Every structure is written in structure tokens, then in C-alpha cells.
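for the recovery benchmark. C-alpha cells below, seq after
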């Protein structure tokens, strides 16, 4: 007796990308309609009548929702890029110290007053900090597939950055400076404006383009350095291009949102099986996945009935830490 074979239909990456894009747009509209004030969103967006509803949307909710998409996409695509570059599933901007060093760079500009005198000092400080951390981790663990070496390098960088941020907090010249430093430690998108979007968006988009331009290299690198080199890729050039892209977009993101962790670790792991573990295809999906996750987190903190709004970094840590522990548990044999 001949049995017919049932072929499971496979979902194409373009279909997944389209679905994530639609979900991102829906969450963006929901974010614009989320807040303490009850407004007419349709009227606020489409009618130019200078009403209170329009002012609330354009001056408060629109920048916040836009930054949630930009920052979330940055953390998602950076995590996917670092995991592909280091060929290590535990790499992400927070775990390897990129976010904390970027926050340190931003804190230094706040501590010395440079952020108030020069408009580009804050994002520039974040970029320099991010670039420094990626370079250190790459030198320590980039040529090794050891998960343990990556974790140790990230722990060392995070510990040093945290201690220097605490030192700046301890010697902050006034309470306002101390509050600003605490903001970078916890992460938030509240009280942001379109000026923050205008300053950070070009640098984030530049970083995205640098990373996405290397998608073929990441696919080849997954087969080994010798294979990538035989296909005509300049290994050092491509590595530095990805490092520059990650530093640029993460530095700009942290300069407007503070330190928000775990998105770059969680999102690529969730989406990687959907693209058959191809690093290149994972980049765009991780960008949209990161945007979705941060939009959901930001909407959630506004819905929670707390006296003070919960910071985004706290929410993402509550989501990401159990996921990270579970991942460590599954990878425990490789750590030994």
C-alpha cells in the first residue's frame, strides 16, 4: 500500500518580513493612541487645526513611538550582526558591553557639560563608547568560537563601564546631573522630542546600511573564514564595516534612550529558525522584531497602573534575563 507523503508548506522569509512589517505599523498606531489623555487620533494626524490632540500626538507620542521603532530595530539588527560576526549565539550589544560603554560615553558628555554646549556631543560620546567596547571584545573573543571567552570579555567591559558610571554618579556636580545619569542606567523613551529623532536617526540608519551591506559576507562567514575568503571577501574590511555600523547605530540609540538591554539577544534567537539559521536573512527580520518588542514594552509601561512610569530597561531585563538563563542552560555543555 502506497502512502501519500504530506509536504509541510514552508513559509518564505519575504512573507515573514511582510507580516512583521504589518505588525510594526499596527503597534505604531497603537502607541500613538496610548497615553493618559483620551484623544481623537484620526483628527490629530490628518487635520491641521492646531488642537490639543494634535499637539499631544506630534510633540509627545509621535517622537516616542518613532524612537521605539528606531532604537528597537537598532538593537535587534546589531544583535543579529554581532552573533553572525562572532559566530556566537550569546553575542548582543548589551552582553558584550556595547550598550554600557555607549551609555558611559553619553554620561561623560553629561558630566562635563559638553552635551549642553554642543548638540552632537551626546550621540558622538555614545558612538565612541560603543566603538571602543566592540573593538575590545573583538580582540579578546572575536577569533574564537568559545562562548566562555565572550562572556568573560563582556563581563569585564560591563563591570568597568558600570564602575565608571557609578563614579560619575557619585561625584555628580548637582542633582540634575545625577538624575540624567540615572536615566542612562535605566533607559526610557519618555520626554523625547522630534529633535532627538532628527539627531539620532541619520546615525542609526547609517549603521543599518553598513550592517545590511555585509549580509552576503555573514552568510559566507557562517561556513568559515576560509570559505568566505575563497569567495572573494576581504575579511578585515568586512569586519570593520560591521563594527563601525554597530557602533554608529547603537551609540546613537543609547544617546537618546539610555541603556536598554537584552533585545539584541532575544529577538535573533526567536527569529533565527524561521530563516534556516542564515545570518544575512536574519538581519532585516531582527530589525523589525526588535522594533516590535520595544513598541510592546513601551506600550506596556504606559498601561501599567504604577504611580511612576516603569523604565524600559527594567521591563526588557525582566523579559530577557529568564530567556538568557534558559539559553545558558541549553548551551551548558559548550561552556564546559
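predicted aa per position
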Amino acid at each position: 500500500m502506497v502512502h501519500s507523503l504530506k509536504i509541510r508548506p514552508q513559509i518564505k522569509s519575504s512573507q515573514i518580513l511582510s507580516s512583521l512589517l504589518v505588525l510594526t505599523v499596527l503597534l505604531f498606531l497603537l502607541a500613538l493612541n496610548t497615553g493618559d489623555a483620551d484623544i481623537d487620533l484620526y483628527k490629530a494626524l490628518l487635520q491641521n487645526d492646531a488642537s490639543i490632540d494634535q499637539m499631544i500626538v506630534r510633540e509627545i507620542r509621535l517622537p516616542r513611538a518613532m524612537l521605539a521603532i528606531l532604537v528597537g530595530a537598532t538593537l535587534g539588527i546589531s544583535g543579529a550582526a554581532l552573533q553572525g560576526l562572532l559566530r556566537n549565539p550569546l553575542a548582543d550589544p548589551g552582553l558584550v558591553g556595547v550598550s554600557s560603554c555607549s551609555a558611559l560615553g553619553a554620561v561623560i558628555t553629561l558630566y562635563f557639560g559638553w552635551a549642553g554646549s554642543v548638540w552632537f556631543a551626546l550621540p558622538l560620546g555614545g558612538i565612541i563608547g560603543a566603538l571602543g567596547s566592540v573593538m575590545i571584545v573583538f580582540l579578546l573573543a572575536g577569533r574564537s568560537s568559545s562562548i566562555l571567552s565572550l562572556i568573560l570579555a563582556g563581563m569585564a567591559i560591563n563591570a568597568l563601564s558600570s564602575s565608571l558610571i557609578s563614579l560619575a554618579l557619585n561625584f555628580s556636580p548637582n542633582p540634575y546631573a545625577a538624575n540624567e545619569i540615572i536615566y542612562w542606567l535605566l533607559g526610557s523613551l519618555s520626554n523625547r522630542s522630534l529633535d532627538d529623532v532628527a539627531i539620532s536617526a541619520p546615525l542609526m540608519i547609517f549603521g543599518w546600511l553598513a550592517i545590511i551591506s555585509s549580509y552576503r559576507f555573514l552568510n559566507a562567514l557562517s561556513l568559515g573564514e576560509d570559505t568566505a575568503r575563497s569567495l572573494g571577501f576581504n575579511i578585515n574590511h568586512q569586519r570593520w564595516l560591521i563594527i563601525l555600523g554597530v557602533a554608529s547605530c547603537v551609540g546613537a540609540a543609547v544617546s537618546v534612550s539610555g541603556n536598554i538591554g537584552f533585545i539584541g539577544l532575544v529577538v535573533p534567537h526567536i527569529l533565527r529558525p524561521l530563516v534556516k539559521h542564515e545570518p544575512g536573512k536574519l538581519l532585516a527580520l531582527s530589525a523589525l522584531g526588535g522594533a516590535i518588542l520595544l513598541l510592546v514594552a513601551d506600550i506596556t509601561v504606559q498601561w501599567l497602573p504604577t504611580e511612576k512610569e516603569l523604565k524600559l530597561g527594567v521591563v526588557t531585563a525582566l523579559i530577557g534575563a529568564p530567556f538568557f538563563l534558559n539559553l545558558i542552560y541549553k548551551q551548558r555543555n559548550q561552556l564546559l
